[in-house]
Write a structure and sequence with these properties.
This protein has about 100 residues and is mainly alpha-helical. The chain contains five helices and no strands.
Length: about 100
């Protein structure tokens, strides 16, 4: 597409993984709000780190991006929220294995 300039339709874009969902134009505002809500439900610091990694990957060296990714992962795992979520997941798994 980049080199040929050939147009592609929505289904081809979806099949190629360039978008995650195709919706009718009339549904677009509602669908966009749903997606924004899902994104906003995540911790702000984790969203900022993900955004920073995306920017780094666009211009930085692979080694630097991987190092930053590892550092950010350690930071994300050290939060109280992460510890709570892990404890809840372990409790759910334990409960499902018992019953």
């Amino acid at each position: 597409m980049t080199f040929t300039g050939d147009p592609i339709n929505a289904q081809e874009v979806l099949a190629g993984g360039l978008v995650s969902k195709v919706v009718p134009a009339a549904s677009l505002p509602d669908e966009a709000l749903k997606l924004a809500g899902r994104i906003a439900a995540n911790p702000g610091h984790q969203l900022r780190m993900a955004k920073r990694l995306i920017r780094e990957a666009q211009t930085g060296r692979l080694e630097a991006t991987l190092e930053m990714s590892a550092a950010f992962q350690a930071l994300a795992h050290s939060t109280e929220e992460n510890r709570t979520l892990i404890a809840e997941a372990v409790a759910r798994i334990s409960k499902s294995q018992k019953g």
